[in-house]
Amino acid sequence: MESIFEEDLYVTAYNTDSNGWLNIYSLFNFLQEAGGNHAKKLGVGFNSMQTEGVFWALSRIKVIINALPKWGDTIHLQTWPKGVDKLFFMRDFILTDKNSQPIITATSAWIVVDVNKRRPLKPQTIDYSMPDNHGKFAIREIPGKLTSPTTTPSFRYERNVSINEIDVNQHVNNAHYVQWLMDCFDLSYVSSHQLASIQINYLEEMKYGDKISIFTATNDVSSNQFYIEGTKASDHSKAFQALTEWKKLD
Predict the structure, then answer these.
(1) 106: closest CA among 58, 37, 46, 71?
(2) Tens digit of pLDDT for each residue in 29-38?
(3) CA separation for the pair 207, 161 (Å, rounded)
(4) Which residues pair with residue 58 across a beta bridge?
(5) Mean pLDDT by 10 residues, the chain (250 residues)
């Protein structure tokens, strides 16, 4: 059983942002794809899960960014499962540069969802034998719940879920939420700042035709930490919460 999955990734022009760095949407796609490839090797990939009427869904993820690779860079990615915490199957990631220095670390919490009931299954009811890599971690903490800040979040924009955002599980793919929250920042801000960390908690499925309202807040106008949430326009339930922290560029 291959306890750790590794691969090299090349940063193409279409993976980059306005600064020429790896954009956060592509980063999340890299992580998702690597996790899926490893799951396949472990016998719990998409096709195997489909035969059992279940699928993997990302519930929470925290990413810490020391540096972003640029267009033309090759980076090395490692990922591994690290056991179970309550409902969550945990998986960590490390991305290193050409000098083998860690530049991005991430920890993620996944659930197994029943295709028909659209409800998570308890890990103890599932017969999946996977390495837990006890003691190996990229980020030691388990991504916890996020709470709204003391200031009332301000409305930013509203949009309908498009067909291009729906994946094979018939809901919005996790990486598209990143696009939604990044659209809260203007070009001047992202040109002078780089994302230092991001946590996203996925609370409800979003499906084709749903409308989502995006809100942001910060406790301090001079702070580079922003809370972002998306609510379903139909019932005002929270679809996701996120916390981002930025560092000012020299």
Answers:
(1) 58
(2) 999 999 999 9
(3) 7
(4) 110
(5) 93 96 97 96 92 94 98 98 93 97 98 93 84 91 90 94 95 96 95 96 96 89 86 95 94
Residues in the chain, total = 250
Could you count the other beta carbons within 10 Å of the beta carbon of residue 123?
16
How would you class 144 by CB atoms within 10 Å of its CB: exposed for 0-12, middle for 13-18, buried for 19 or more?
exposed
**Separation between Cα atoms, residue 27 and residue 215, nearest integer Å:** 23
- Strand 193-202 versus strand 54-65 pairing type: antiparallel
Beta strands in the chain (DSSP E): 5-10, 54-65, 74-85, 88-96, 102-114, 154-160, 193-202, 211-217, 225-232, 238-248
Q: What is the pTM of this model?
A: 0.95
204 exposure class (CB count in 10 Å sphere: 0-12, 13-18, 19+): middle
Closest alpha carbon to 201 in 158, 164, 235, 230: 230
Q: How far apart are CA 109 and CA 90, in angstroms?
A: 5
Question: Are 55 and 102 within 8 A, CB to CB?
Answer: no
57-75: per-residue pLDDT in tens? 999 999 999 999 999 999 9
How far does CA 80 lie from the centroid of its chain?
16
